[in-house]
UniProtKB/TrEMBL annotation:
Tagged with keyword Zinc: no
Enzyme class: lyase
Gene3D superfamilies for this protein: 2-enoyl-CoA Hydratase, Chain A, domain 1
Protein name: Enoyl-CoA hydratase
Keyword tags: Lyase
A Gene Ontology molecular function term of the record: enoyl-CoA hydratase activity
NCBIfam families: PRK07658.1 (NF005803)
EC number: 4.2.1.17
Protein family: Belongs to the enoyl-CoA hydratase/isomerase family.
Any Pfam family the entry gives: ECH_1
InterPro entries, per database record: ClpP/crotonase-like_dom_sf, Enoyl-CoA_hyd/isom_CS, Enoyl-CoA_hydra/iso
Length: 257
């Protein structure tokens, strides 16, 4: 694979996103993640999966450059839907997936992390959904998962201000399980993975399946509505301005059009 690396430690598969500089979730990365999940699901020697990022970040979001090639609402909806399908697959995966987050998990990167069963973060990591600073909205089910973890009011604040929170605050608000110094992150993640991998695969699978019953029919409706809204907002002049400003490294000038 071009953008993913895999290492097996005992019965844990460590999957590393390696697409410098920001490990952005380009379409090719999403495709590779889907493929590697297919392979790991049928590998009986693997009981736990750890997902992490190479370099400075876990994942700093979607590939904004790819946005410039989207010229219709249908293509924007397709982009959102493809990402949502991957996140849903991760959330419903029969083996536990632990997100080991350092540096930043922003936008699509946080949406990816939120779909994992467990999140361990470095204390100084930044987690957020900054899409509104680009004149768009989250499109990989972020509007539906973030309130589940931090509550509606905090989710609204995080999305509307586009400001991230630290790893320490992510634990405080229920977005992450534990925050540790960055130099201890991998070791602590693998300690947890080792505790889980000693359990019966059948019991692990049963618990993960039962956890999905907490999802309501409204969640599916919300995700569908998010993809549609993503397509509509993506066509606005403000969205074009936001993407252009990001790529040109300047402040956007939103006019409400």
């Amino acid at each position: 694979m071009e953008f993913l690396k895999q290492e097996v430690v005992n019965k844990t598969a460590v999957v590393t996103i390696n697409r410098p500089p920001a490990n952005a979730l380009a379409g090719a990365v999403i495709t590779e993640l889907d493929q590697i999940l297919h392979d790991l699901e049928t590998n009986n020697d693997i009981r736990v999966i750890v997902l992490k990022g190479e370099g400075r970040f876990f994942s700093a979001g979607a590939d904004i450059k790819e946005f410039t090639s989207i010229d219709s609402g249908e293509k924007a909806i397709e982009l959102a839907t493809n990402g949502q399908k991957l996140m849903d697959r991760i959330e419903n995966f029969p083996k536990p997936i632990i997100a080991s987050i350092h540096g930043a998990a922003l936008g699509g990167g946080l949406e990816l992390a939120m779909s994992c069963h467990i999140r361990i973060v470095s204390e100084n990591a930044k987690l957020g959904l900054p899409e509104l600073s680009l004149g768009i909205i989250p499109g990989f089910a972020g509007t539906q998962r973030l309130p589940k973890y931090v509550g509606t009011a905090k989710a609204a604040e995080m999305m509307l201000t586009a400001e991230p929170i630290s790893g320490v605050d992510a634990v405080k608000f229920g977005l992450a399980n534990v925050a540790v110094p960055e130099e201890d992150l991998y070791e602590e993640t693998m300690k947890l993975a080792k505790k889980i991998e000693t359990k019966s695969p059948a019991s692990i699978k049963a618990v993960l399946n039962l956890l999905t019953y907490a999802k309501t029919e409204q969640f599916s409706q919300g995700v569908e509505a998010e993809a549609k809204a993503f397509g509509e907002v993506f066509l606005t002049e403000d969205a074009k301005e936001g993407v252009s400003a990001f790529l040109e490294k300047r402040q956007p000038n939103f006019t409400g059009n």
